Amino acid sequence: MRAVRRVPALLLAAALAMAVPAQPALAQQPETKTAGAQPPALPPGTPVPSGADPDLAYALKTACIRGHKDNIDIKNRPWGQIRLQFDELHKFATGKGVPVAVIDTGVSRHPFLGDRLRGVGDYVKKEHNGLEDCDGHGTQVAGIIAAAPPAGSDIGFTGIAPGAQILSIRQSSANYTGERPPTTEGGRGEEVAAGNLTTLAQAVVLAANSGAKVVNMSVNRCRPASNYEIDSGELALQAAVKYAAEQKDVVLITSAGNTGENNCPDSKNGFDPNNPTHIVTPPWFAGHVLSVAAMDRNGDPAPFTVQGPWVGVSAPGTDIISLDPSGDGLANLHIKSDGSKDTIKGTSFAAPYVAGLAALIRERFPNLNARQVIDRIKLTAAHPAAPGGHDNLVGFGMINPIGALTAMIPAEQGVEPEESRSVRMTMPPAVPKDLTPMTVALIGAGGGVLLLLITLFVVHTIRRNRPETRTEPRGQA
Hints:
Elements: E1 7-11, E2 59-60, E3 67-72, H1 79-83, H2 86-89, E4 99-104, E5 117-122, H3 137-146, E6 165-170, E7 173-179, E8 191-194, H4 197-209, E9 214-217, E10 221-224, H5 232-247, E11 251-255, E12 278-281, E13 289-295, E14 311-316, E15 322-323, E16 330-331, E17 333-335, E18 341-343, H6 347-364, H7 370-380, H8 401-406, H9 436-465
Parallel strand pairs: 1-17, 4-6, 4-9, 5-6, 9-11, 11-13, 13-14
Antiparallel strand pairs: 1-3, 2-7, 7-8, 10-12, 15-16, 17-18
Helix pairs in contact: 3-6, 4-5
């Protein structure tokens, strides 16, 4: 690979995250409703979704992204890379050889990924096998995970796990659209962008069966939480993540979602931990998935990050630098359709920091299972000042990669975790006072005073009763 001296900025002409239409509720689902914080239990016998083909015939409707006409020379390191101490981090691990699946808009070939990039599947255009990225999203996500600039170059940017392998699965695209079959005879079908929960579920299973040890899903779908019944797409995804985590030992990472996108609320999704206003998928399946909120460079939650009881941890999600999918350089901004520029930001780009950290842990601690990897990330994060060290906005707090690679976790050594107990506070019994010494002292003191008074009385009486002695004056001669 050669050093890149000039790097074009990125032009994005379409939405980057997957928009997934609502799907009908399953008739066979039980009618019992649960709190929105927890999905219903997976019904016994639910099949694991399978399939590797697009669900519709998709065609390119909007041209693929292209580099901006003005070249921008990007040499600085992103703030997130500095905050997470990549220079020290890579002394412990680089993620070497760990396969990380990126289920996204595809990943374009890039010199900073080299031969560590492999196409695994494509649910948009099968012939591209995940190695075309018309939207630009997936390539940027992959760069945050595993980009490795040429040795000796003066480029500051690098991925958090520059030794990891990237397995690309294109599952969604806003630039490709297809037509659903018409619902009425003679009617016209609805035009939809590529990507839905069913193909996402299939992609998770494909990634797990393709040898991925970590999966990054920077995709979200939001729906109102007024009805807690699970729909068909959610059920398929629930079965897929359970299969991947429990049977294939895969660490599953997802973004927490951005306000105002993909039907997510503009507000913060309510403040009652057990009753969010909207359900966000895949984060809803927190029993098997670790979802990631976004933080800004000031250490505050990014204003766009969606809160919810399922949020696991947080990571940098603003002022992002990553790979340019339209060339061989880097990008640090989006050019909108109206020509205005905006920095790259979103929970989509916070999630790959955590996916890369999971790859580092899997290299350094190969004997840990997926659940232990997730627990290590949570336990070593910078916990917020909240009950249990967790809140709905940042989860267990900003990740601490150095801590995650160096901390001793008692549970991993077979030490039972400490349990908090409600201990009733009791006062010791009252001890009755022994007044004997005081009584003796008072009697003694009183006796002494009485004896003194008697003595004084006697002396005084004797003096009064003693005859006076008179002295006569002598006569003179």
